[in-house]
Every structure is written in structure tokens, then in C-alpha cells.
Amino acid sequence: MSKQYTLVIDLDRCIGCLGGCRVACKLEHGTALGDSRSKMYTMESGRYPELEMYFLPVMCQQCENPPCVNLCPTGACHKDTEDGVIKINTDRCVGCGTCKQSCPYGAMNFNKEMHVMDKCDICSELRSKGEKPACVKNCAGSAIYYGDINDPESEVSKLIREAGENVYSLPDEGNKPSGRFILRGAKWKEEEPWKK
Amino acid sequence: MPSNQTSKKETRYVKTACRACIANCGVIAHVRDGRVVKLEGNPEDPMSKGRLCAKGLAGIQALYNPNRIKYPMKRIGPRGSGQWERISWDEALDIIARKLMETREKYGAETVFCSTGGGGNPEIWSIARFCNIFGTPNWFEPGCAQCYLPRVLAYTMMYGGTDPSIADSNALELYFPEDTPIKTLVLWGTAPSYSCPSSGGGAVVDLRAKGVKTVVVDPRFTPDAAKATVWLPIRPGTDVALMLAWIRYIIENKLYDREFVLKWTNLPFLVDTETKMLLRDGEDFVVWDTNSNFPRTMPYPWDENLAPAMFGTFTIDGREYKTGFQLLWERAEPFTLQKAAETCWLDAEKIEKAIRLFAENTPSGLAIGVATDQTANSVQAAMAAATLDILLGNVERPGSLLQRFRTSGVLKVPNYPVPVAEKMLPPEQLKKRLGGIEHKGLHIWYAGHPPSILDAILTGKPCQPRVWIDRSGNKLGVVAESQKWAKAIEKLDFIVHMHVCQTSFSAYADILLPAAEWLETDMIVETCNTLVARQAVVHLWETMDETLFWSKLAKRCAELGHEGCRKSFDPEFMGEDLAYWDSMDEFFNHFTKEVGLTWEEFKAKAPFEYLPKEEWRSYYVYLEPDENGRPKGFNTPSKKLEVYLESMITLSRTGKPFSLIELPPASKDYEPLPYFIEPFESPNSELAKEYPLVYTGGRVPFYHHSTGRNIPALREIYPVPELTIHTEDAQKYGVSNGDWVWIESPRGKTRAKARVTEGILPGVVHMERFWTPETLNKDTHGWKEMNVNILTSASAPYNDVVGTYTLRGFQVKVYKAEGPPEGIWQKPEEFKSWLPLSEKEVR
Predict the structure, then answer these.
(1) Residue A78: how many CA atoms within 13 Å on its side-chain side?
(2) Which of B166, B187, B212, B800 makes the best surface tag, with the fewest CB within 10 Å?
(3) HEC profile for B674-692?
(4) Are B91 and B170 contained in the same domain?
């Protein structure tokens, strides 16, 4: 089976501090002010005092059938055959934003300065040097894991097996997201705040 | 040349430690061609374990920030005009030293006062030391009695080991999730996920993941509250009532560790009910022996032939005595679960569930945070919290938070190496410490009382302070009743501000001094069993480490004839207090020689373990034999845990054990047992008709105190302060989510943006401190727009022991505002002008 690198986030460990997933990510990639490769949503429910809350960091879900790739008019947005990660070839990208419109999770970002699209590629450059992605490395809750979800022996596959029925993915509109979320401490909410 | 090009591409990795807050997380700084290009967590750090939070990661944007104070500067326009002229360090030091000497000569050294603050503060004792040597007893910190000192005081006096404050890098047992047996952790008024995400925040995440149950006492539905087994959303300012109810329940249901309490606390000792002092027989204390039904002397540590009464009232030679335990019970007795539920706006069943977890799912520990330090009931909350852990025997056992783990010996006080040189302050000057007679607990940190200093400036009584040197962030953003301080500033002759960047306070200064950012500073950091070197990764402009600045100022004063300052450079005279140093190398060499290294060698080697982990985690220190083969006990006068804190009485009357000289008594004795006082501006008072909501404060994870408001990567996340308000209250007062609102107390009003949520105790609102660097050069100087400290109170009543004023737990009203304050920035793009300066601009 081909490789599918992806992020698995243990939401019981996420404390919503925006350190690794926002600030480390932003500084690693020089993302412009106001833009980010990842978003953070606070998922609140219930009435005082019977409340639940968890944080949901959302970045590219490295879909198996990615509309961003399928619809890209120039072929700039492509799925890397090596690791299954969706990447932008900025030489070919014309910044038309088709991918952004097609992404069900609002995970595409437009780089205003370079006039090209920008997205989470699980820190390809760092990984190629044998390092961990910036968010994984710095996350204050050590909540973010990455690896090949198609390899049953990988850390992420083991985590998913251990979590059993407490594993969720973002709503699938036929795009088959590969990203996974583990949540035991609260009830998973089907809301899609990125569509608001 | 090719060789040059190669070197330009090479990256140097410097292992250092963060100081964006006080947690000191390990950092690897990537340096290319002399410039810091990237920061990341260092996995070798045993507390942060490679994690790094938003504040730390944004360190590059702080370091190369265009708002940095780059050179010493002298004001040339009127105060507040923002007109400055660059001067040399020599000239700046000369101007300041002459002003200090002239003021001392004319009005007395005590009319010079200094202040410091937590925001990026590298060394709090630098300032205490300089003041002692110069001869002024008056320095203050807006934290101090409002932050941490009440807890340090209580745990020092009752136990003699470290307090369990997570945000102050204590409670070290929590950092070993792999084998700590702790089963229940109480987070009382502390939110590690907000205050120290990558160290304490991550540690609590690890513990929860392995099944540790948590109880969170906090009116806000914080990330830690959301993940807690029991959340107790308490009414701000009523913590002691709840703690007394926990104590009562534990005593009534016999959930305490009887054996431990009998043998290792002073609760069985007899107390004279009239004098409130313990009954003594020589150095020993007296118990009521139930075998003989007679008072007997209990020799240290224990006499197996005696069976002391835990409770009871006894008459000896016509005088009435009670056991400490009896007095504690009487103090707690009125606080039933129902009474606490009513007082604290809680559910009695949930309180009971929380107590049962804490007392029965053991070992357990209670980590107390800053919340209780911010009301006039501060010291009593810390005493009650310590009492709870002690009653359960949660002391120095595996799993306990109260521990005396080994230290390296390199530093006397871990992470705060500068010796305070207490003996240098002349006794007649110590007596002039403002607020120091009434609030003697402040002497544990050799500090003055901020509102007493403020009153002295405004009234000229008992002296007229004239010169203010501040080494911190934005005093006008963090002291209670900022508007009063702004008035006081007008009365001062001379003001110096030393900081990394200009803040509101700078606008009122006469001299500005450039302080080093943490990436430019050196410090020895002890973190668990590991020694870390914070090291100057780069040095920009003419910035200076404050640890060096005060030395240079003392030197200039010495040259102008100050005798104490002259002596402070004499190694023989200074002894253990160390002679002042001419460089950071010289300073640190004193300490690193303890491990046989120079500072240079230390920096190259660090981080390194100074002891194996198992040896470092020393449990049951009180049972280790002393020189006579008896257990050494605790660091208290009786060597027992002093739950009945008789030494509070001595402290109020004499200043002992913290003052080197005997001071006149306070107007009233301090209480040996915790007591509850209802907040003086309370929802139960008449005032609540006009101001119906209770205010509370507390961190967000993006800022530490007043820092970070000019850091683009942080400000874009949290551009303006939120006023968190419950849905029902919002509806009642006509406020919708995202509305700009006024928040008003009897002292003033300010603005914030409403965040309407179910996640806060109804009747309570929260807002964090804020100031706006973008309006620094406007009339407001950035502190009037959205500053919650316009609402807080610097007025009495204060905490009796340490003089805490009221930062939380007072009444406010909230109503819709017409819009945001003029000139403030909210859009991410607006912060673009604060992005890092280029290398060219830095050189």
C-alpha cells in the first residue's frame, strides 16, 4: 500500500494554547499576518454548569481523494507519490484559489505576498532533514502526532488502534480525509465552524 | 569569497532557556550569520520536555522588535512629549547617580524608591540588593503581596519547604508522569494551560492521560476546568470559606491522617486561649496525655508512652488551654457544605465529591495558584491550602506536591542568584520601609507596600518619595488604580525606566534605559535535576542585562562618595553577599565554581544533570537523621508542621523571623489560623445594586503580565482584551457576543470586547490586563483605553500580614459601548510595522 503521511491529534491533550500549531507553524513558514496554515476552533456545548469544551486544530487533512488536487487547473497542487502529502509547486501555482474554494475544511491559505497558495505539508522540508514537523515538536500538550497511517506499525496507526471507537475524522464529502482526531473526554461535535 | 559564503550558511545551535515568562523552558536557538532565525523547545529540559508555547516561540519578534529601547535616552521635551535624545551609558549613569546622591543628601535615601516586575524579569533580587546597598528600604513589585508572596510566606512558615505553585515551577513531583503515584490533583485558582502551557500545562496533560483525577476551582471554564473530574466554579474572593469547609468536612468525617497529624504537626500541642501562645516546657511543647489525663511535655520528636488528646479544652493552674486541633475545628466549624455552597455560589454535592476525591483517592496534592493572592484574604487562603495537604499527610511522600528535593548547591535560591545583601541596609532605614510595620510579612522579600508608597507620594506622609527607578514592563498596566499612580507621577522629581521596549510608563520617564531581551541575557537555571544556561545568544544595540546595570549604578554612586556603595565592591567586606561584579562572567563564575566549571565551560556543557533523577527526588526528608540521630523534621521552629501558626503572632509584634532587627508591633496581632473575610465590595453589599457583577482576572496563554502586546504573532491572536460574560448576564445587560462594552467599577471605567459564553460562573465577568503600544504617543499613552487596573483597588482594607490590595473579587457593571477606543489596532495587518527589524537595521 502506498504511504499516507498525516497528522493524528489527541484532543484530550490539546489545551488550545496555539503555541506549536499556530505560532511555531507561522514562524517556520513565514506565513503572513492574518493568515495561518492551521485554524483553532473552540468546541463548546451544554448549559452552565453542565458544559463540555474541547479544542479542534484544523489544517490540511491530506485527503485520499483531494478536490484541491483534482480541480487545480495548473497541476501545482499535487499529491506527493512518496508520502501521500498534498503539496503546492509554487512555480506552477497562479494563485487562482480554486483549491481554496474546493477544500471542505477551509485549510488552504493564500499567500498574499507571493501570490501563491500555501498549505500544511506536514513540514516537508523539516521531515526531509529528519526532523519532526514544527507543531509536533513544540505542541505544549504533545497532542500532535504524524506518520504513515497506512503502515500498521507506525506510531499513528498504533494510537488509532488503542483509541478504538474514540477516533474521529472531519466530515467526508467524498474527499476521504486521512487526518484523525482522538477524543475521549468530551462528545465529538459534528459542527463545521469553518463553514461559518 | 567561497569560504565566507559557507560560514554564512552554517547554523549554530545554542541551548538556552526562555524567559518570556518565569517558567524557564529549555530552548534551542538557531543562529545563522549572527542572527537568531528560529527557536524551538529543547527535549533535554526535564520540565518542558521539548515543548514551547506561543510566548516563547515569539521570542524572535520580541528580540528584533522595532519598539525596542536601543540606547540610553534623555527626555528633551516636556514629560509625555515622546521627545528623546540619545546619550551614552556613562552619561546616563552619571545623571542618575547624581540625582540619587543629591536626593539622598537633601531628603534621605528612603525618598528614592525602585520597582521591578515579573514581565521578563531576569532577576528580582538585583533591585532589592541595590536598594539595600544604597540605603533605601523602599522597592516594590506589583506582584509580591498580590502574587506569590502570600503562598511563599505561608508554606515557609508552616512547612519550611517549597510551596506547590505550578506557575512558579514548583510541585516538581508532577513532572514524572511515568512513576509518580499521585491520584488526585487539585488545581485551586491556577490554570497551567494558560500560565505555563509548555511546562506545567503539559505536565498536567500527561498526568490526566495516565488517569490522574483533577479538581479545578476556578470561576472560568478554563481548558483545565473542561478536562477536570470536578469543576468548582467559585465566586471570586470566597476561597477561604470553601477551604474551611473542606477542613471541616475532613475533620468531621475523620478523613485526615491521624498518625501523621499526631506525630508531625503541632496540632496536639496546647494553646493558651488568652495569649494564643503555645504552652512550652523549655524547648518542648505540652500535650494533654489521655493515659494519665494530665498535661505532659512532649519531647521531640515523639514519646511513645504519651497518648496526646487531639481535641479538647483543658484547665491547668486555673488557665484555659485548647489543642491546636480543637482551635482549628472551632475556626472551621461554621463552614458546613451548605454554608460554603451559599457563600461561594457552588453546589454542595459537587463540593463533597471534590473533597472525597482529594481525601480518599490518594496520594493527592493541592496546587494553589495566584487567584487567592489577589484579594485581602490572601495569606489566609495559602494557610488553609497548606493545612489541607498537611491534614491528609500529603507531605514529602511519593506523589505529594510538598517536597524538598535535592538542589545543586550552585544557587542558594534556585534561579535567583543575586545576593540581597540585607545587612547593608542600616537598621534606621529598615524602619522606614513604607507599610513595613503594619504588613511585616513583606519583609520575607525585603519589599515595601505599593499602596503605602503611593499614599506617601500623594500625601507627603510619612515621607515624600521623589525619585523612581523602575526596571519592568508597564507599571500603569499592572498596578491597581493606575489613574492614582499617574497622578502620583506628576509629583515626582525624577523617573527612570529600564525596559526592553517603550511602554506607557516610558512616556512619564526622564531617562530611558535599554534592557536586554531574554535572548540577550545570561542566567543559571536549575530545573529539576538539571542545570541549564540561559545565555546571550546575540547582543543588539547598547542593551544591558539589569544584573549588570545595578552594579554599574552602584559604582557611579561610590565614585560620588556613597560609602555603602563603595563597600559593596569590597569582596572581604561583602563576604557571602559577594562584591559587585564588573561583568556577567565574573558574577556567574562565583556560582559555577561549585561544580568545578567556569561560566564559559558551564555554558558549553549545559544542560546537564547534576544528580541522577532517583537520587535527586528525595522523599521523606523530615525522617532523615540529624547530627544526633533524631529525624531532622521540618524547617520550622518546632520542626513540626506548624498548622497552628503561632509565629504569625511573633511576626506581627517584632518582624521576626524575617526582619534582622526588632520592629515596632503592628496595630493588631496576625491570626495563627486562617479566617474568612467577605470581599469588601461584595455582591451581598449595597454597592451591588449599582455594580451587580463580580470581577475576576487571570491569564490568557499569549501574554505574560504586561509583555507581548507589541509582538505581531501574539497580538494577531488576541488583539484586544475580551470581557468574558455569561449568556444570561449578557442578555440582562443588553450585550451581544463581539460587542464593545464598558466595564465600570466605583473607581473608573474601561473598554473591552464581549465574549458571551456559558463557560463562566453567572454573575462573574473576566478580563485580562491590557495596554496598547500603538497609542503610546497619544494623550492616553496606551494605558487608558482597555486597562482593567483602572477598576481595581489600591485602597484599604488590605491583607493584615502582607498588605495585599484588591485585584479580583470586587463589583463592576457592564454596558454596551458605542465602539472601540480610538486609535487601537485590531486587524492582523496593522501589526505589520512591528515585525522584526532586518539585520541591517539592527546593526
Answers:
(1) 12
(2) B212
(3) CCCCCCCCCCCCHHHHCCC
(4) no
B540 and B484 assigned to the same domain: yes
Three-state secondary structure of B636-678: CCCCCECCCCCHHHHHHHHCCCCCCCCCCCCCCCCCCCCCCCC
pLDDT of residue B123: 79
Q: Which residues of chain A have pLDDT under 70?
A: none
> Which amino acid belongs to residue B2?
P
Question: What are the backbone angles phi and psi of residue A118, rounded to the nearest 5°?
Answer: -145, 135
Closest CA to B786 of B729, B718, B722, B695: B722
| C-alpha span between B81 and B74 (Å, rounded) | 12
By C-alpha distance, which of B508, B376, B545 is closest to B451?
B376
Residue whose entry in the numeric block shows the C-alpha cell 486609535: B823
Instruction: Give which of B127, B246, B254, B232 is closest to B188, Cα–Cα.
Output: B232
Q: What predicted TM-score, i.e. pTM, was given to this entire model?
A: 0.97
Report which DSSP code applies to A19. Answer: I
Cell output for B491: 509629583
- For residue B363, whether the previous peptide bond is cis, meaning omega lies within 30 degrees of 0, is yes
C-alpha B463/C-alpha B516 separation (Å) is: 34
Chain B nearest C-alpha distance from A22 (Å): 8
Segment B682-709, tens digit of pLDDT:
999 999 999 999 999 999 999 999 999 9
Smallest Cβ distance to B233: which of A49, A55, A137?
Answer: A49
Residue B226 falls within a domain, yes or no? yes
Q: How far apart are CA B833 and CA B97, in angstroms?
A: 36
Q: Are B640 and B266 in contact (CB under 8 A)?
A: yes
pLDDT in tens, A12-67: 999 999 999 999 999 999 999 999 999 999 999 999 999 999 999 999 999 999 99
Q: Residue B482 belongs to what H/E stretch?
A: helix B482-490
* Cα dihedral value B459, B462, B467, B470, nearest 10: -90
Range of the domain at B367: 162-403+638-654
Does A138 touch chain B if contact means CB atoms closer than 8 Å? yes
Dihedral sign from CA coordinates of B668, B670, B676, B678: positive
Cα-Cα-Cα-Cα dihedral of A67, A71, A75, A81, to 10°? 20
Q: Give the number of domains in chain B.
A: 4
Contacts of B49 in chain A (CB under 8 A): 142
Between positions 14 and 73 of A, the ones with CB within 8 A of B are 15-20, 22-24, 26-28, 33-34, 44, 46-49, 51-55
How would you class B76 by CB atoms within 10 Å of its CB: exposed for 0-12, middle for 13-18, buried for 19 or more?
A: exposed
Contacts for B398 with CB less than 8 Å, ≥ 6 apart: B173, B180, B181, B363, B619
Tell me if chain B has a CB within 8 Å of the CB of A196: no
Nearest to B72 by CA among B94, B56, B51, B50: B94
Q: Positive or negative CA dihedral for B786, B791, B795, B801?
A: negative
Q: Alpha helices, DSSP H only, in B113-232?
A: 125-134, 149-158, 192-195, 202-209, 223-226
CA distance B742 to A182: 41
B333 and B209 inside one domain: yes
Question: Does residue B813 register a pLDDT over 70?
Answer: yes
d(CA B65, CA B834): 6
User: Do B131 and B29 share a structural domain?
Assistant: no
Show which of B67, B98, B121 is a domain's final residue. Answer: B67
For residue B825, what are the CA distances in angstroms to A6, B502, B721, B774?
37, 17, 12, 7
Cβ atoms within 10 A of the Cβ of B339, count? Answer: 15
